[in-house]
Design a protein that fits this description.
Elements lengths: L6 H25 L10 E7 L2 E6 L11 E4 L17 H8 L3 E6 L11 H20 L4 E6 L1 H12 L5 E7 L9 H6 L7 H8 L4 H11 L3 H11 L4 H15 L6 H13 L2 H4 L3 E2 L2 E2 L9 E6 L7 H4 L1 H5 L5 E6 L10 H16 L4
Parallel strand pairs: 3-4, 3-5, 5-6, 6-9, 9-10
Antiparallel strand pairs: 1-2, 2-4, 7-8
Helix pairs in contact: 3-4, 6-10
């Protein structure tokens, strides 16, 4: 007669089984290609140099009237919002019945080193808005900016008279750069000569930007690799890890003049927080924003601390304005299981009432 296994024996057996799987899967991990990302069907409806404008194929039987234009940060690729079927924020929006567009970026070429903050906010974004209007047949749009994409969206709104926005949504968008403590330290003008850097290298290398993000959490890579090893037995976990890791390593270089203006006007002058900033001769003062506004903050954001993003909703003059603080980090609030439970349904509830 076989003796009943104890809980301790069951646990030991499970750990031995996982240890064996880790070693087998570890070999597969090294040999296998990176999972495909950004596969939701789409058309490229406009491309100019570093700029790519996508229109995702609608999949719902009924579509909301107001289209959504997602604006990404110029340093990050848009596929973080479209990782894989079942894990895609874009796919979620499509299934909810939204007409989705994305302004995504490629690495700027050497001839684009002169692109300025004005080019991005008063030329690129307005042209994309015009093409979304043309494609959708609607005059109003919802603009959704992620991180520095939110900064670009705010500046566009404030420097474009009559901007055709029905709603403005920002995710983890920094406003008060004095609260971006580590960024402020490494870009301290007493020690950081931004003019010499840009004049020497032109476009700011992605390696430099990646290193600055890594410096925000020095032990994060080691901790992530430890989590990967511990979860190597789990195929679903490993696939998700590899997709996010691919995105994190896929940092884009920044156009030199755009970087120079960002350092001087947004970080050193803290122009968004103080209102002491102009782009293309037009004042950037958050109090002049009056459209319905939603800002989503991450409670444990190591890139844009909650304190740096917090001033936005208080600063705008919109009568319809909402701030949502979600448990999670800079990436996990928009991608992964945490985002699917916490952010995505809240955004759908907010947008659904304002997209007809």
């Amino acid at each position: 007669m076989t003796e009943a296994r104890t809980p301790v024996a069951d646990r030991i057996g499970l750990e031995v089984e996982r240890a064996i799987k880790r070693r087998i899967k570890g070999v597969e991990y090294i040999a296998s290609p990176t999972p495909s990302v950004g596969v939701t069907p789409k058309d490229v409806i406009y491309k100019k140099g570093t700029l790519n404008l996508y229109h995702y194929h609608p999949i719902a039987s009924e579509i909301y009237r107001v289209p959504i234009l997602i604006v990404m940060a110029t340093s990050n690729r848009g596929y973080i919002l479209d990782l894989a079927p079942g894990q895609s924020f874009v796919e979620f929006l499509l299934r909810c019945g939204y007409d989705v567009y994305m302004l995504d970026w490629s690495a700027p070429g050497g001839d684009e080193r002169g692109l300025t903050l004005e080019d991005y906010t008063q030329k690129f974004i307005p042209e994309c808005v015009r093409r979304v209007q043309e494609r959708s047949g609607e005059s109003e749009i919802t603009m959704l900016g992620y991180c520095m994409g939110g900064v670009l969206s705010l500046i566009y709104t404030l420097t474009t008279p009559g901007a055709p926005l029905k709603n403005l949504v920002c995710f983890t968008t920094p406003i008060d750069f004095s609260k971006m403590e580590l960024f402020s330290k490494w870009s301290d003008k007493r020690f950081f000569d931004v003019d010499q850097l840009v004049d020497t290298v032109g476009n700011v290398p992605s390696e430099m930007l990646f290193a600055s993000f890594e410096a925000l959490r020095p032990a994060s890579r080691l901790a992530a690799q430890t989590r990967l090893w511990e979860g190597m037995w789990n195929d679903e976990f490993v696939t998700s890890y590899r997709m996010v890791e691919k995105w994190a390593n896929d940092t884009l270089p920044l156009a030199g003049e755009y970087f120079r203006a960002t350092i001087k006007d947004i970080i050193w002058k803290n122009g968004l927080a103080t209102g002491d900033m102009s782009v293309g001769g037009r004042k950037v003062d958050l109090k002049h924003i009056t459209v319905p506004m939603l800002h989503v903050l991450a409670e444990h954001d190591h890139i844009v601390p909650e304190a740096a993003a917090k001033p936005l909703i208080a600063a705008v003059s919109s009568t319809d304005k909402t701030e949502v603080v979600i448990k999670g980090g800079h990436v996990s609030i928009v991608a992964g299981a945490n985002a699917q439970r916490r952010l995505w349904p809240k955004l759908d509830a907010w947008l659904g009432e304002r997209s007809t």
